[in-house]
Amino acid sequence: MRSAFLEDVDLLNRLALARNSSNGPAAGTEEIIVHGVTGVCDPLGGLYLPEHGVLVVSDLHLEKGAAFARRGMMLPPYDTIATLNILSAVIARYDPKVVVSLGDNFHDRKGSAFLPDNLRTMIKDLARGRDWIWINGNHDPDGTTDLPGTSTDELLYGGLIFRHEPSLISGRGEIAGHLHPSATVRRRDKYVRRACFACDGTRLLMPAFGVLAGGLDLNHKAMHGLFERETLVAHLLGRDRIYSVRYGNLLG
Amino acid sequence: MDLVETQSPGRDAALLPRPFLKWFTEKGWQPRVHQLELLSRAAGGENMLLIAPTGAGKTLAGFLPSLTDLTRRGKIPPGSGFKGVHTLYISPLKALAVDIERNLMKPVSEMGLAVTIENRTGDTPQAKRQRQKLSPPDILLTTPEQVALLLANKEAERFFKDLKYVVLDELHSLVTSKRGHLLSLGLARIRRHAPDMRTIGLSATVADPMDLQKWLVPQGEYPDPPAGLVHVTGGAAPDIAILKTEERIPWSGHVSTYAIPEVYEIIKRHKTTLIFVNTRFQAELLFQALWTVNEDSLPIALHHGSLDAGQRRKVEAAMADNRLRAVVATSTLDLGMDWGDVDLVVHIGAPKGASRLAQRIGRANHRMDEPSKAILVPANRFEVMECQAALDANYIGAQDTPPVGEGALDVLAQHVLGMACAEPFDPLELYDEIISASPYAALSWEMFERTVDFVATGGYALRAYERYAKIRKTEEGRWRVSNPAIAQQYRMNLGTIVEASELNVRLVRRNAKGTIGRGGLSLGKVEEYFLEQLVQGDTFLFAGKVLRFEGIRENECHVSNAFSLDPRIPAYAGGKFPLSTYLADQVRGMLADPDRWHVLPDQVRDWLNIQRDRSMLPKQDELLIETFPRGQRFFLIAYCFEGRLAHQTLGMLLTRRLERAGARPLGFVATDYSLAVWGLNDMGGMIASGVLSLPDLFDEDMLGDDLEAWLDESYLLKRTFRNCAVISGLIERRHPGKEKTGRQVTVSTDLIYDVLRTHEPDHILLEATRRDAASGLLDIGRLGDMLARIKGHITHRDLDRVSPLAVPIMLEIGKETVPGEAHDAVLEEAAEELIAEALG
């Protein structure tokens, strides 16, 4: 029996890591450069741009449980609080001036309007004293209801462009989400799959931040043509640090 | 058992209408005693259980009460009012329902009876199913899932009110599964629509018939008397032998390739040979090996559950026509199907259970008064002893079928929703009905209420979903579905068989340029996780061919012919039966008693003798622990004989304890017979010096905190949770309008499990998961029994080198890795390479 059940083990790691996280600079991060801008990949799943004081998170998929419940599948109603707990840990680490949430902030259009009050308060507290940008995603194209911050389809900032879906025309300086990249590493007969930041120096694809978001392998056809494979590196979310592996080297 | 000569013809005449007597006379047959006894008692109003070996005319016996009743009723004139179904026949296999229709129609048409018979399975076209509801046949041949569907309908009462008999075939196999749980709940509901309905169970021999006799009648506060029992014993004793081989019997492994030339010779000497194996993996390998020696090009076929249904039907048809000389098959051919003139059963590998062996051997020769012939081919030396034990058991008629388990909660949740779809239910009434089903007789009211709450809103402590409730309480206190879409969802997701996510495998052609064409033969299905590990060019064995993996396109796996001789082999997770408790006990007994060794082959006897000289042989109730160094490692072997699942659980728990004790364990491997743990420190020395106490190490308290702690991280529970989540309706397999998304589950159940366990560890679905795992994958019950049994009976031998008895398990090391560990080390290794590259 080969290791067939390696998926998604990073969720408990992230929950534990968030619980034990302290304020201030974090261990286990990895510095990268996208289109000339320095970024810090955090094992909790966020990207921090120190030159601009910007924290980027993507695909929070808040209220995914409730979205399914509306369709008759009663998934646990705890995903939003779990995601927000990790988010508050990563905000506490960097105390960013700006938070950019890269779309699919809520799992469906009704999510932000039906958000329970205690969770709404939690987001308001997290946003206090900083700018918050909600990039619209395909799950939530209409922006948010009664939450701090502004909604937009795209954001140009510090020489980078932030959007939800990666552009098929040009990826220069693009930070995008949508695809939930994950990568599989094979060494001898062991396989490990983890969510990852995918970056070829020109474009960066963010891992999904939401706890119920799942992942899509870098080899999936939806990823084709997005990266220069020679320079593509997967920065995988490990138990307490980022592991960086060259694309061509993933399978050993 | 005697035939009917002892009966007076007068009794036959009274029981059997004229066409039956005429038919028997024309055939030169006489009804058998058990057929008449069953008929007279069922007609007299008793629920009945018939236990009989294959070839005893079980099917006809089961249908005689219906057929005679329907014949006396006569044809219903056209234009009469609606008449509900008269008899339900329920079988665990779709194919069996189809097969029975064929077998039953023959006598019915020969007798010229005015009886309509139809089958209804998942394959029946929608139009026919609709018509069956409006105008049911007299006898409906169907499956547990279809019964649940019919019951969840508003027309259920009309459909079932005239029901007289429910015939349950292969009952021994149905009752131990979740399908059996679902069916028991369905029967409880049918009884409400048709209070006079009688059950007739047909079963192979079981360990405890009373379990089934109770299963067939209402339980609860005022249980009915158990169903009447007709037990047909005897038949000719089977002629079973263990293959006498000139070859060297391997120390380990499961495939018996050493015996291929001998098996081939045996096939040549028989008309049709049925070759049973335990796993699809063995089937594939054996099939390929047989064809490499098949110089006479004998028609030899392959049959297992992953193959394309069309291919399987072809093999079955060829068998029925006696066009095949041999079929290599897994348990898909286990159940009572009647295929052609099989004159020999060859069983490859040990049968793992005495009852399973009896069933499989029954496939050879379908006339009970002639002996069936079988040959067992053990795959390794332990299996020689296991085969011998099974052989002894078959002669003395020992049985080790699993007991009827407690009803599963996920199945209950599914049923509760189904009942709300049928009509608004009163909770008290439904509770009484449910506990009348024997698997749910012990269900508490509190657990029932929690289940209803789970169905309505997910049953969470955080009451977040009241406004989305699937079922709601009306003012009269009845629960009804919130909207029609819920009922539609229920119908699309019903059932208790959760398949691992599988992809269709299609054989495509590579052209000269190396590009791949479209279309091609569909070969069957392979688990997605296995295919995900392949890269283009990898080869594997499937459907009797060595295939080259080309890629995954639109939910299909494309492969081409590989022309390679060294394939990677599908490492299917399922299909391995653990050694039964009964056989394990027999093997322990044989090991301890040299007087019984004379029946064993010389090479096995020599092996045991050397073991006795070098180390020792444990007594039947003793646990032998051996320790020895080898290479840079120290090994500890425990000879528990409790089956692979229980050993795996023990291995997980033991390594935790050894870790704490400072033995620095590195890994373990489990077989059906023993467990090997290896580590960096000298465990033998630690035991000898008293640093490590074996009684403490093997204390029952490991099933407390250690078990809990381990379960928290275990991938096994995630797999079980997925099944529970799907069956209970938390997760849909199919959603209206999205039938063809390919992926069977729309959200990762692993993630849901983690979130739920973190935030509400007492949730009912986690409880259901733990219960399932305890009896299934983890075999905790059996492990607990063993720990109790060996208390005070542990013997330690500290050796300076590996013992003969340890060789088989030592050879398994490295073949099988233990999955589910956090593999950050692998990531680290890969990341180091990047650093080295950067620095170099």
TrEMBL record, chain A:
<dbReference type="InterPro" id="IPR029052">
    <property type="entry name" value="Metallo-depent_PP-like"/>
</dbReference>
<dbReference type="InterPro" id="IPR004843">
    <property type="entry name" value="Calcineurin-like_PHP"/>
</dbReference>
<keyword id="KW-0378">Hydrolase</keyword>
<keyword id="KW-0255">Endonuclease</keyword>
<dbReference type="Pfam" id="PF00149">
    <property type="entry name" value="Metallophos"/>
</dbReference>
<dbReference type="InterPro" id="IPR026336">
    <property type="entry name" value="PdeM-like"/>
</dbReference>
<feature type="domain" description="Calcineurin-like phosphoesterase">
    <location>
        <begin position="54"/>
        <end position="146"/>
    </location>
</feature>
<dbReference type="GO" id="GO:0016874">
    <property type="term" value="F:ligase activity"/>
</dbReference>
<protein>
    <submittedName>
        <fullName>Ligase-associated DNA damage response endonuclease PdeM</fullName>
        <ecNumber>3.1.-.-</ecNumber>
    </submittedName>
</protein>
<keyword id="KW-0540">Nuclease</keyword>
<dbReference type="InterPro" id="IPR024173">
    <property type="entry name" value="Pesterase_MJ0037-like"/>
</dbReference>
<dbReference type="GO" id="GO:0004519">
    <property type="term" value="F:endonuclease activity"/>
</dbReference>
<keyword id="KW-0436">Ligase</keyword>
<dbReference type="GO" id="GO:0016787">
    <property type="term" value="F:hydrolase activity"/>
</dbReference>
Automatic annotation (TrEMBL), chain B:
<dbReference type="Pfam" id="PF00271">
    <property type="entry name" value="Helicase_C"/>
</dbReference>
<dbReference type="InterPro" id="IPR011545">
    <property type="entry name" value="DEAD/DEAH_box_helicase_dom"/>
</dbReference>
<dbReference type="InterPro" id="IPR001650">
    <property type="entry name" value="Helicase_C-like"/>
</dbReference>
<dbReference type="GO" id="GO:0003677">
    <property type="term" value="F:DNA binding"/>
</dbReference>
<keyword id="KW-0547">Nucleotide-binding</keyword>
<dbReference type="GO" id="GO:0006281">
    <property type="term" value="P:DNA repair"/>
</dbReference>
<feature type="domain" description="Helicase ATP-binding">
    <location>
        <begin position="39"/>
        <end position="224"/>
    </location>
</feature>
<keyword id="KW-0238">DNA-binding</keyword>
<feature type="domain" description="Helicase C-terminal">
    <location>
        <begin position="259"/>
        <end position="409"/>
    </location>
</feature>
<dbReference type="InterPro" id="IPR045628">
    <property type="entry name" value="Lhr_WH_dom"/>
</dbReference>
<comment type="similarity">
    <text>Belongs to the Lhr helicase family. Lhr-Core subfamily.</text>
</comment>
<dbReference type="InterPro" id="IPR013701">
    <property type="entry name" value="Lhr-like_DEAD/DEAH_assoc"/>
</dbReference>
<keyword id="KW-0413">Isomerase</keyword>
<dbReference type="GO" id="GO:0016887">
    <property type="term" value="F:ATP hydrolysis activity"/>
</dbReference>
<dbReference type="Pfam" id="PF00270">
    <property type="entry name" value="DEAD"/>
</dbReference>
<keyword id="KW-0347">Helicase</keyword>
<keyword id="KW-0234">DNA repair</keyword>
<protein>
    <submittedName>
        <fullName>Ligase-associated DNA damage response DEXH box helicase</fullName>
    </submittedName>
</protein>
<dbReference type="GO" id="GO:0004386">
    <property type="term" value="F:helicase activity"/>
</dbReference>
<keyword id="KW-0378">Hydrolase</keyword>
<keyword id="KW-0436">Ligase</keyword>
<dbReference type="InterPro" id="IPR052511">
    <property type="entry name" value="ATP-dep_Helicase"/>
</dbReference>
